[in-house]
Fold this protein.
Amino acid sequence: MSVVELKGVSRWYGNVVAVNDVTMTLSPGVTGLLGPNGAGKTTVLHMMAGFLAPSRGEVLVGGEPSWRNPKVYTGLGLVNERESVHGFLSGWEFVLASAKLHRLPDPAVAAKRAIELVEMTEAQHRRLDTYSKGMRQRTRVAAALVHEPAVLLLDEPFNGMDPRQRLHMMDLLHAMGEQGRTVLFSSHILEEVEQVSGTVQVIVAGRLAASGDFRTIRRLMTHRPHVFTIRSTDDRRLAVALIGEESVRGVELDAAGGLTVRAGDYGTFTRVLPKIARTEKIRVQALLPADESLESVFSYLVES
Amino acid sequence: MNATIARITARGLFGRRRFLLLLPLPVLLVGLAFLADAFGARPDEWAAPVLVALGFGVVLPVMALIVGTGVLGSEIDDGTVVHILAKPLPRREIIFSKLAVAVLVTTLTVGIPMYVAGLIAGLPKFAFALLVASALGAVAYTSLFLALSLVTRRPVLLGLVYVLVWEGLLGNLLSGTRVLSIQQYVVAVADKLATTDLLDGKVSMGVSLVMSAIFTLAGVVIAIDRLRSFSVAGETS
């Protein structure tokens, strides 16, 4: 069953295209929306949440368009990135107000349960503007899931959280996914997505670059050509030995000394290099991955 | 009407410095009326400058401007409006709740001082007329300013231009602009209800009531429609 659907969705601001012809379907479970900053993740989330009209295409939540349709919020919760809250309210008042605005039959019980779920019971009677960033974030999550929505959208939910809070939030998202809810969270950090979700949607420069099982995409990412810089006691001899290896696609001698090696497969190359060095009696003084930034991983995904 | 939204709105409003800084204005109004009376000036000498020029000309529109643009505009500015909008509430319910708070606060902070000033003049009927006219003005002004806060990013500036330039300046120079001046409706209604010679209404009662209703209705309809299409600005990072 698909709960959130984007059909050929584009969004532009004047001449700038923020989201370009994205089609995706979210099913129950946790999905990570992965992409570098400025890729269009927030725009996609805002369109799903009914806070932005698609310039073209259709955004459906539970089969209904989310734009200009407040009814969708009966089954949808949103935690946006901007962490603004009514600072003069206490955590309890904030979550309770959310429960009341959802017209829940017993708002106090729902608010209590939601606050317990995010472990904010102890500080619930303090004003929100005295909270730390992580506490505010958790309270906002409590307010967003007080009505137990079928769909929960979170924009960069781990920002500002300490490692313990992060783990707790990951557990919470897991649990919500296992309960059969559709949880989508955005992140620009690969490891976060890896730990929480089985399914990912990778978005780069407004386009959907990859979509599906995280392990498959991760493999695609690890099997991409990697570039390393190596310094050794005999660069030229090492180069000769390396070019004979199947996992090596190319070797270049740098003018300033050292080697630049393009390896086809990260795992094989890193296992083979020490063996070669030992056989050839060459000492490797430095081995640096040259393109480990997330952006290069993303751009590789777009090209492939 | 939604009590939860109204309560949050009122608490937000009273917590804002901009609103609290204006509270001396109504006090000034009553203070001036009291002083004028204490120094033996007759109501026909001080009613025009204090009640019309200051009360209806400045205090009412400025309070309505800050309150009307503040009830929703401040939440739009700081992004907290998203919490209210991400709920399955008809948008008209949100607008009506916000407007109710704005009208009530403006009427209390302007209508009551005007009423007291009327009593200082020794004319209870006149005082009542001032209260009713202030309430009418509060409804029309706050509807207009609430709509402005959804139409433009600079509602206070635009509102000030309306109050100071259109009503204040052009209203005195070009008689034609009076038909589109809430201030003129308010003075006219107070004048008709008071049946004294202290005020000088320049438009008829009928025009005042109909035009106030039009301002209110237009403001509400525009505000509801704009809130339905409320967009959150794109990428923040």
About this structure: Chain B touches chain A at residues 2, 4-5, 8, 11-12, 15, 78-80, 82-91, 228-232, 234-237 (CB under 8 Å). Residues 3-228 of chain B form one domain. The CA atoms of residues 5 and 84 of chain B lie 8 Å apart.
